[in-house]
Amino acid sequence: MTFSHPLASGARIFAAHDCDGNKHHVLALVTTLELDPEHHNYKKPFVEKLCAAARKYLADSGKATAFVLMNKPSDWQADRT
Known about the structure:
Oligomer: single chain
Number of strands: 3
Number of domains: 1
Distance between the termini: 42 Å
Order of helices and strands: EEHE
Strand order of the largest sheet: 1-2-3
Shape: globular
Number of helices: 1
Mean pLDDT: 91
Low-confidence stretches: none
Largest sheet: 3 strands, mixed
Strand content: 25-35%
C-alpha cells in the first residue's frame, strides 16, 4: 500500500536511527504547500488535511511509525538572516 494524496507530490518510507541506534520507519511526504505558519501563503486547512491522511495511512498500513512533511529540496531557500 503506497501513500497517495492530491496534496502530496511524492511519498516514500525511510529508515531513521535514533541516538540509541534503534531503527524507525518514517513516511516522508513531499508537498508544494507552504509549511511555515508565519508565511502569508500558509493554508492551515490543507496542511491539516494532508496530516490527517498521513496519520490514517500510518494507522492502516503499519509500515511506518511517524511522518514528516517537506518541500522539494530545490524549493528550499537559505535563511540569510
